[in-house]
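Data availability (excerpt). All sequences and predicted token strings are deposited with the supplementary files. A representative entry, GNAT family N-acetyltransferase, is shown inline so that the format can be inspected without opening the archive.
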Amino acid sequence: MPSVTLREIGPDIEDAVRALRVAPGQEGFVASVEQSFVDAVDEPEGNAWMRAVLADGIPAGFVMVAWDVVPVPGEMWGPYYLWRLLVDARYQGRGIGAAAVALVAEAVRADGADTLLTSCVPGEGSPQPFYEGLGFVPTGELDPDGEVILALDLATGPTR
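Structure token line:
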């Protein structure tokens, strides 16, 4: 597995991060990096924490977390919510996504959180099995778009 790190998105790697794309057929399950940038501006209350996922120093993915937000039932999940996780099609299947989630968990744990939330579209091809394999469990809630809300107990996982 490559060495995976998270890094702020500066001008030197922004174009490479914006160019990341999921595999064909996955577009219905994760928004693009470009859309994530738009969402971060359109929803400033989400306090977007965005990072490039580097594999051996090369941009291979993207994460965006709603960071320490005030939850609003049915509208804003939190206080820590994995808003986006994208691994470029060229880098999938190498453990990069799992390593990125572990790094995000480590960062929010260090900020004092005990739970990390995320959501996903249910159905064939959904990333739900990926998240459950990392220790996320369905909360029984759905967001307004019908996405399943999942929670990760940061006392138990995942870690690097």
